[in-house]
């Protein structure tokens, strides 16, 4: 048996390549599918099955893209009217070399969620659980509205306790996400787990049904606006992806800006603050997969500027998030812009010492905390207002004109600050964020 985990950086997505005796299955493939084809070639295997554990919300699934290249059947749960593939139900069995793959219906996270048990000689070895169970966590149940949470939480509890946990303590659990995913708040930083280990360490599994439902009812999680597009793509089938980004010279790039393209600077905050193209939104490259979906829309062309030209992580992230309106990047990167004498702006960034000094002097500004609710509840700078960075676009009218923005370290605050500046605010970002603030011993408020 061959098992390979394919991780997608930024969205913390896990897909899987499972093989036995010349045959393979792929579970929850991402849209850029080259890796699965390479694995099939490396292990001399034919991909026979493509399983979708559920209609994923946080990325565009690559099933149709993969099927372009292989003679495989796409399989998913039957509680949604998918426009492609074949529905499966509980008890369906698929042979894969010497292995058997058995379907469990495990609703709760979504109604059509399935899990796939991998058996050898009728003994369960692995279970691919999608977003039902994670190391240290369980799936979120809020996608159908707060009024539905008692029902969906009840379904998830039953899926866990009546179907997954009885498989046996030795069974390896293969989740669709790792630590850092927006699909749940506190996923442990480990690739795989076992049912037995989760029984011992996962406190949510120790709750009775009533307490479990109440726990899920009180849970606060973020739902990025791009999830709606992902749900549509994954129900109807996304267009086959175009991986290309056009390299644009300075004149072409400037013309795109004048025509209203979405301009994203993917350099780090310090570089962005030092100089950038007017009207740029700053989302640093490593954070692009996690944050782009809060700020970019799916119609106007997207153009990118980095330090040296193209950025492959950003390109792949746009593909995975379904941004088929991606257009191009500034050839040669930001240096070619200023070398050609084009207009530049800088951005005022304060150190925490400067922030403390201006507070002590009674400066007339609002401090804006853009961290997660759970982080702010631990501690925050006294007198600051709060708005999670992903909620900024919907709350522009509620934010004062003169603001100084902080987050954990200065990356998310510069996203927020760049957006506010684009909308005419007098705004500054705090480099180092509250991490630097606490290291200097400056006072904090605890909730």
UniProtKB/TrEMBL annotation:
Transmembrane segments: none annotated. Residues 257-346, 361-446 form the Rhodanese domain. PROSITE patterns: RHODANESE_3. InterPro entries: Metallo-B-lactamas, Mito_Persulfide_Diox, POD-like_MBL-fold, Rhodanese-like_dom, Rhodanese-like_dom_sf, RibonucZ/Hydroxyglut_hydro. One of its GO terms (molecular function) is hydrolase activity. Signal peptide: none annotated. SUPFAM superfamilies: Metallo-hydrolase/oxidoreductase, Rhodanese/Cell cycle control phosphatase. Keywords: Hydrolase, Metal-binding. The keyword Hydrolase applies. PANTHER family: PERSULFIDE DIOXYGENASE ETHE1, PERSULFIDE DIOXYGENASE ETHE1, MITOCHONDRIAL. This is MBL fold hydrolase. The lineage of its organism: Archaea, Methanobacteriati, Methanobacteriota, Methanomada group, Methanobacteria.
């Amino acid at each position: 048996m061959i098992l390979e985990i394919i991780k997608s950086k930024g969205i913390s997505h896990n897909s899987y390549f499972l093989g036995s005796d010349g045959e393979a299955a792929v579970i929850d493939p991402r849209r850029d599918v080259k890796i699965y084809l390479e694995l099939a070639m490396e292990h001399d295997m034919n991909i026979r099955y493509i399983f979708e554990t559920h209609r994923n919300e946080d990325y565009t699934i690559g099933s149709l893209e993969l099927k372009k290249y292989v003679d495989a059947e796409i399989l998913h749960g039957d509680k949604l009217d998918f426009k492609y593939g074949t529905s499966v139900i509980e008890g369906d069995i698929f042979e894969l070399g010497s292995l058997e793959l058995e379907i469990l219906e495990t609703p709760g996270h979504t109604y059509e969620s399935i899990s796939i048990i991998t058996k050898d000689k009728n003994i369960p070895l692995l279970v691919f659980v999608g977003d039902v169970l994670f190391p240290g966590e369980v799936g979120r149940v809020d996608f159908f509205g707060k009024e539905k949470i008692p029902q969906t939480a009840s379904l998830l509890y039953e899926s866990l306790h009546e179907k997954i946990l009885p498989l046996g303590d030795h069974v390896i659990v293969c989740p669709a996400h790792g630590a850092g995913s927006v699909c749940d708040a506190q996923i442990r930083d480990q690739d795989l787990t076992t049912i037995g280990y989760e029984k011992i360490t996962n406190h949510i599994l120790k709750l009775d049904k009533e307490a479990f439902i109440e726990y899920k009812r009180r849970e606060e999680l973020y739902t990025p606006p791009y999830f709606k597009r992902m749900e549509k793509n994954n129900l109807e089938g996304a267009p086959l992806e175009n991986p290309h980004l056009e390299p644009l010279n300075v004149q072409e790039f400037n013309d795109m800006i004048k025509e209203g393209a979405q301009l994203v600077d993917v350099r780090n905050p310090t570089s962005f603050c030092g100089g950038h193209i007017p009207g740029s939104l700053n989302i640093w490259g490593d954070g692009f997969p996690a944050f782009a979906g809060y700020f970019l829309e799916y119609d106007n062309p997207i153009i990118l500027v980095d330090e040296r030209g193209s950025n492959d992580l950003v390109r792949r992230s746009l593909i995975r998030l379904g941004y088929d309106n991606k257009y191009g990047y500034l050839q040669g990167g930001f240096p070619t812009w200023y070398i050609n004498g084009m207009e530049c702006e800088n951005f005022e960034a304060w150190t925490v010492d400067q922030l403390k000094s201006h507070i002590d002097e009674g400066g007339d500004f609002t401090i804006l905390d853009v961290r997660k609710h759970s982080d702010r509840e631990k501690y925050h700078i006294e007198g600051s207002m709060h708005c999670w960075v992903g909620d900024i676009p919907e709350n522009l009218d509620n934010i004062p004109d003169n603001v100084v923005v902080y987050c954990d370290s200065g990356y998310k605050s510069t996203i927020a600050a760049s957006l506010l500046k684009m909308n005419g605010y007098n705004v500054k970002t705090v480099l180092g964020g509250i991490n630097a603030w606490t290291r200097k011993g400056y006072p904090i408020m605890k909730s």
